Amino acid sequence: MKKSIAVDMDGVIADTETHFLNWYEREYGVRIGVHEIQGREENEMFPDKTVARKFAFTPGFFRSLPVMTGAVEALKTLMKSYDVYIVSAAMEFPQSLPEKLEWLKEHFPFISWRNIIFCGDKSIIGTDYMIDDHIKNLDFFKGTTIMFHAFHNVNHNHHQRANNWDEVLKLLVK
Amino acid sequence: MKKSIAVDMDGVIADTETHFLNWYEREYGVRIGVHEIQGREENEMFPDKTVARKFAFTPGFFRSLPVMTGAVEALKTLMKSYDVYIVSAAMEFPQSLPEKLEWLKEHFPFISWRNIIFCGDKSIIGTDYMIDDHIKNLDFFKGTTIMFHAFHNVNHNHHQRANNWDEVLKLLVK
């Protein structure tokens, strides 16, 4: 039987970091550099703490996310050896649910609806592996964790880090 | 730490059986009795096998489901001793996602968004208990199962059966 992997969406197969910085520049005319936000909490990436949540509640935000570099090919490769599930903590943003489904259908059409999970917290996910950028999800996971690099996790090192999808494949595919 | 329970929606906290029979009568002018469908597969509850799926894809179907008798009080009672998660295999019917969220907000406002999971198959759900009417979900579950009575499961007896919410409480609350 194949081992199973829970793959996060935002910050892992979707490049939310770039998207947030692009939306901020468009709305406020200021380009914040990637280096400026390293080590900050997600709600502290902008001077006004309410901005990121405002964007996340804006219709179209999740539908227009860029795909993370290498994610499409990496998931196709992983699916040869693993049962791959997309697990997104989307329930806080109800308007994101249909947008996330449409986004997956467009960019990852090879993922079946059977393998998609939208949840609140991820504590009851029982896969063998979890690839996620948030320690709040990884810390409560019972299986093997891979922490996907993100600005908000650079100072946390108690999970196996992968800086990009190539590094994930090196860890999981022999 | 509290034990966790995954509680199904359709057929467990929502009375889909009554709803299907009501919709059928409204659309086709024929009242099918509960006794007539006992032991049938879900897609065979009506003479035309496509009807149940047609209803399930109709906007408003899931939003207007009646609440299962006893479900509200039972979940409130269970939440005193357990972490209760609502786990619905909703991904096959994308239009149902916002409807199911609104329905839960109306009828089960005490359930946090953190405890709601919409998925495809349920094989990766890692709670301690699962209450579900479908053996396809219960058979692959690693924890303790409770099969909630439904017309389509009357001939299956390899899971602990509960005929109603009172019987669930007798099994789970000492």
UniProtKB/TrEMBL annotation, chains A, B:
One of its GO terms (molecular function) is 5'-nucleotidase activity. It comes from the Bacteria. GO terms for biological process: pyrimidine deoxyribonucleotide catabolic process. The active site is at D8 (nucleophile), D10 (proton donor). InterPro entries: 5'(3')-deoxyribonucleotidase, HAD-like_sf, HAD_sf. Belongs to the 5'(3')-deoxyribonucleotidase family. This is 5'(3')-deoxyribonucleotidase. It comes from Mucilaginibacter xinganensis.
